[in-house]
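Try this one yourself first.
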């Protein structure tokens, strides 16, 4: 991929894989692979929602608490969301982010160039001219609570995005009901 290592990237993003120079971190600033990074905590939602005959739910709960206190985030497995739904959501996301910048900017989360709102599209904020940017564009949409969704901020394309997000929301509600119906409520009330 041209420009990824030497910092001589094209100034504009091309679909062929060129990386703009402002996204290429200077060699001396890159983290060392030898430094090692601990793996992201993985939480098994199935273990959290089962009766705790084998102690697995208590162990998983402790792991969840540790992940929240030390990392602030975690990866969930055994959540029951079908691979086909995850694939559909991923494809809808790729369709949205594959659009021209002008289309995505219609859903920008900066209002009148001054005020920021949580929902909407954004790319990395430029703090200074010489800043190396993280390659991150985001589309933040509130899906819960249902009555507080702002559909006017949701992209019209791809059409499948709204349906996928709604299906994921429904599945997450099912997971919450299952988790809260579990007989282990006393330790969760902390």
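Now uncover the answer:
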């Amino acid at each position: 991929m041209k420009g990824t290592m030497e910092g001589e990237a094209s100034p504009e993003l091309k679909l062929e894989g060129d990386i703009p120079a402002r996204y290429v971190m200077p060699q001396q600033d890159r983290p060392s692979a030898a430094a090692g990074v601990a793996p992201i905590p993985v939480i098994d939602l199935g273990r959290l929602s089962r009766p705790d005959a084998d102690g697995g739910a208590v162990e998983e709960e402790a792991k969840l608490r540790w992940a929240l206190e030390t990392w602030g985030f975690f990866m969930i497995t055994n959540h029951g969301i079908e691979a086909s739904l995850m694939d559909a959501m991923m494809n809808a996301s790729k369709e949205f982010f594959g659009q021209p910048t002008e289309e995505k900017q219609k859903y920008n989360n900066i209002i009148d160039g001054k005020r920021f709102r949580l929902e909407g599209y954004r790319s990395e904020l430029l703090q200074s001219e010489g800043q190396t940017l993280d390659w991150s564009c985001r589309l933040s949409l509130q899906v819960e609570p249902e009555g507080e969704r702002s559909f006017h901020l949701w992209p019209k394309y791809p059409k499948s995005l709204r349906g996928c997000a709604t299906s994921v929301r429904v599945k997450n509600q099912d997971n919450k009901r299952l988790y809260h119906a579990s007989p282990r409520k006393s330790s969760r009330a902390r």
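Discussion: Confidence is low (pLDDT under 50) at residues 1-16, 185-190. The chain is about 35% helix and 10% strand.
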